Amino acid sequence: MKSKITFALRLIVAIILIQTLRFKFTAHPDSVYIFEQVGLEPYGRIGIGIVELIAGILLLIPKTVWIGAFLTVGVIGGAIMMHLTKLGIEVNNDSGILFITALVTFFLSLIILYQYRKDIPFLK
């Protein structure tokens, strides 16, 4: 079912990933705070931003969708774990928006990865 719905999911995840980059790459105080809390400031913030940029681009290229979804599941899975172990659900009084966004992105990426499972060469 590589339909308009699947494309919309890919676009939503890519937009979420790419729109957060301005916070990471401009050293926004909230982003710096988060990465300081998990001990990854500044290299983790920039490195994860680069991985998210790559994943967002790969999600938009038909032949590399599965790679982008796989990267997203990994990176966002790490973000969810950081929320659950070090940051907490609510960060800087955001009412849990970052955590909820991470969950939505994670589950949409799993759906995309499932939809493109036949494109994964080592699963053929």
Structural notes for this entry:
With 124 residues, this protein is mostly helical. The chain has one domain (4-118). 73% of the residues lie in helices and 0% in strands. It has six helices and no strands. Helix 1 (4-19) runs antiparallel to helix 4 and helix 5 (65-87) runs antiparallel to helix 6. The longest helix is centred in the middle third of the chain and has 23 residues, at 65-87. The protein is elongated and about 40 Å long. The two termini are 18 Å apart. The mean pLDDT is 95.
Number of separate helices: 6
Strand content: under 5%
Please give the domain count: 1
State the helical fraction: over 70%
Distance between the termini: 18 Å
The tally of strands reads: 0
What profile does the largest beta sheet have?
none
State the shape.
elongated
The H-and-E topology, N to C, reads as HHHHHH
Class by alpha and beta content: mainly alpha
- Report Rg: 15 Å
Mean pLDDT: 95
